[in-house]
Amino acid sequence: MHQIIVEGVATKMAIREGRALWVESQQDGILGGHYGPEDVKKIVDNAKSLGANMLLWLVKARMADTAPALWYPSEIGLSHEQCYQYDSFGDVVRMAHEAGIEVHAYFSVFTEGDIKADAVKGKKPPLAEHPEWAVVDRLGKRSEFVCASHVGYREYLGSLVKEVLEKYPVDGINLDFIRYPRSACFCDNCQRNIKDRYGLTLNQVVDLLAGKGFDSLNYEDLGAALDRIGAVINYYNQNVHETVEYIHGIVKGHSSKVKLSAAVFPNPRTAPSQVYCDWIGFAKFLDFVCPMVYWYSPEYYRQTVGRLQSAMREGTKLYPGISALGVPHPLAGKNCNFLPGAPDMKYVAELVDIAREVGAPGVAIFQYGTIFGLQPGAYTGVKWGTPVAGDVGLLRDRFAQPAIPAHAD
Ligand SMILES: [Zn+2]
Is position 9 within any domain? Predict the structure, then answer.
């Protein structure tokens, strides 16, 4: 009898596991022209019924070619006009907290988007005010990414983070696009820094990064060339590192209870050289990290997440990302590391099991709209917004036991 009672209690007790959903469907809704409290409530209700315990809610968009970049009523930056009529972010923080769900404000950090977007309340797009902040490629073309070397932009970001923290009782700040595009930057700042510090011109950096002429070098000269590349790669990584450190200072200066996290490329060996994101290096500033292990085959997911889990420091939780996207990866069927077709709900549920088996203390699912059958909208588009086939009940079963996030104090 005594044992039965204890077991009865045990089944109701919450375990510690992060169960995060990225949410971008509000952008589709706002761009569609109708968005109100009932839409936000539905998201919170669905998340609650699923057993999720965190929403990573987009407040700064990745590519704003559809609209201005901010999705809360900012007094500092350029927000979508609708956000001044109805503050869905304020509502989700309130409603989710009532439901016992954490809300983390999700910022696409270095993407700024449409330089020609209309001013709202006198605010212009940051890259219209500061064209010198843009990442510039080898041919001089400006991108929609901001170069992490610009302290002025870092301070602008910091002011947005501070504004969100002061305005809303959020549980955390989640950083995405905390990296360069798949290209080195040759903005004036970078050209000057690289010349001053390493004595290299733009053309020399381009040749070095392409490995031009390496096949004719002897080992000693090759070693020197690789050291030059190493210095340049480290330069870009350091710019990103310092930005994370700066934001960490702002977040923890506001409150040690507020968590800082990031979404990153899943391969820690190639992320520092391909997109200058040495996230193993800046993980010490993060309470949790979500490598976007998207479209991996179950076997490769197991291998990757297992390795990442063993590389994590104490104090930073690993919540590997799962792609709940109804479209296949471009390498599907051509490369055994990737799922041969489009993910479905069975796949999503299987990856939750695998993450647990290799010891990850949670998962982060991309994204809310695709597991609840919403159609792609103007923001999410086909690639990021196509629903996965199958029954969301498979995922609900995995999350039947209540959980508080593993990073909770
Ligand atoms: Zn630059």
Answer: no
